[in-house]
Design brief:
With 173 residues, this protein is α+β, with helices and mostly antiparallel strands. It is 15% helix and 34% strand. The structure holds fe (ii) ion.
Length: 173
């Protein structure tokens, strides 16, 4: 039922320390408030030079020219509520967790009956890329006293299954 939420990209390299430091020291912009129910950007994010990396340039050539990357930050003791990423036109993403916050959870859910859901946790490993199906509803809980940092690569033109097929045979240069 929830077997198409994530795919661990264990054959790809860990994120370089320079990008971890860039994320933690990033210039994060606050989300634009939602006014009159107009849906706007809802996350705190920052730009990254990872967009210029060989990996992203290679993906732009082989998968989609519209791929881009940014950092996200979750406040201490915060819940990023249930949502899918359709507002950001994101069908699937590659995420790298930059900080190991004890009490931090990323969950997917599917409804089984009114007020009841089946949930599954995304098993992030620090610095290791994870493909996520963000067309499914998900949330982030940061139940820790520290900020939680993430590098996120948006793959807007392919869905999760297409991206998973691509990465199963992807050769790291
Ligand atoms: Fe999301």
């Amino acid at each position: 039922m929830l077997d198409n939420c994530f795919y661990q990209l264990d054959h790809l390299p860990l994120l370089g320390k320079e990008f971890v430091n860039e994320g933690i020291n990033g210039n994060f912009r606050s989300p634009i408030p939602e006014i009159d129910n107009i849906r706007t950007t809802r996350t705190t994010k920052a730009d990254t030079t990872f967009t210029n990396s060989k990996f992203i340039q290679d993906l732009k050539q082989k998968l989609s020219p519209n791929i881009h990357a940014c950092f996200f930050r979750n406040d201490p003791y915060s819940l990023y509520d249930w949502h899918n990423d359709s507002v950001g036109n994101r069908k699937c993403v590659i995420n790298y967790l930059l900080t190991d916050n004890i009490g931090s959870l990323t969950l997917f859910r599917k409804s089984v009956s009114r007020l009841n859901y089946k949930i599954v946790e995304c098993p992030y490993t620090l610095y290791r890329p994870m493909l996520l199906n963000v067309e499914l509803e998900h949330c982030v809980i940061n139940n820790s006293s520290d900020y939680r940092y993430l590098l996120s690569v948006s793959l807007p033109d392919v869905n999760f299954e297409q991206a998973m097929d691509f990465f199963k045979s992807y050769q790291v240069f």
